[in-house]
Amino acid sequence: MKRILIYLTTALFIGQASAQEFRPGMLYTPDHTPGDTLKIMAYNTENLTDLKDNLYINNRMEDSQDKKKEEKAALLVKVIKAANADIVMISEFETVAYLRELSQKNELGYKYFASSESQTWYQNTMIMSKVPIGTFRTYGSVYSPIVGEKDEQGKQAMQININSRMWIAEVWPTAGQRLYLCGVHLKAGRNKSDTATRIGQTALLKGEFERIVKEDKKACILMAGDFNSTPESDEFKMLQQGSKRARFIDPLAGTSVYSHPAGNPRWRIDHMVFNKNLSAKIVPGSTGPAYILSKEEMTEMSDHLPVVTKILLH
User: Which residues form the signal peptide (predicted)?
Assistant: First the structure.
């Protein structure tokens, strides 16, 4: 029986490939000129929607014609300009079409866009990049277990409702370096079922990371986004287990650096974690939550702080 590989989740790989070696799945745009570092920002924008009503989604937040939405979008543009990241990973944003419109209208300089969007909900995840994007994998059709819970028939409980909020994008900052950016917005909530759902999502992703490093022993992985999990949680600790190349390093472990809520951060649920292969490429001290603008403006923009990092390319 053949095994079907499903590549899931925000993770980032940097794999080396010869510029002369063009293999299936490789994509590179010659007109891109890489710098010495790659700056990445992951940001939960807290229910940012446009003024266009999606007739297939019946929700007060999405249906609203409140002009304050445009004010918030303008503030997001200001954050993105100030951050000047090469790649921006976005969650709780309605559509990639709207993100592309904002980028083009405000001349933000992003050329490549991809998204994973729910058919029934307005909180979506996406990526915009100044470097070329290759294959983009989404997981909205994948069921994951609600660990420890049973359904009405006494079988393992499963869910598919929010797995569209996990994706993996191949990114090619240079012809010789491949990155797999994995973006996530895991299940929110603090009750037992919420935790069980996040554990199921994390287990699903861990399986994918193990498969990836098995195929490529030099694979560098970075996972980023809103985990809705603190460093002390069982699901976060799962990421630090497994084979040595698939274990994740938390660069802020043991610190009192927090990301939420933006106005008065008291816990860290927004993360950027990476495996050992990638650790040598991370610019020291570059990873963590950041006030891109003033504290007042960041609080107005979102209840989350963005998380940033810098990766050495040469």
Answer: 1-19
Q: How many CB atoms lie within 10 A of CB 130?
A: 20
Cα–Cα dist 95/87, whole Å: 17
Q: Report CA 197 to chain centroid distance, whole Å.
A: 18
CATH: 3.40.50.720, 2.40.30.170, 3.60.10.10, 3.40.50.2000. Which one for 15-312? 3.60.10.10
Lowest average pLDDT, out of 135-139, 227-231, 247-251, goes to 135-139
- 283-302 pLDDT, tens digit per residue, is 999 999 999 999 999 999 99
Give yes or no for a contact between 269 and 229, defined as CB atoms under 8 angstroms apart: yes
> DSSP characters for 21-59?
---TT----TT----SEEEEEEEEEEEE--SS--TT---
> What are the boundaries of each domain within the chain?
15-312
Q: Tell me the pairing of strands 177-185 and 222-226.
A: parallel
pTM for this prediction: 0.89
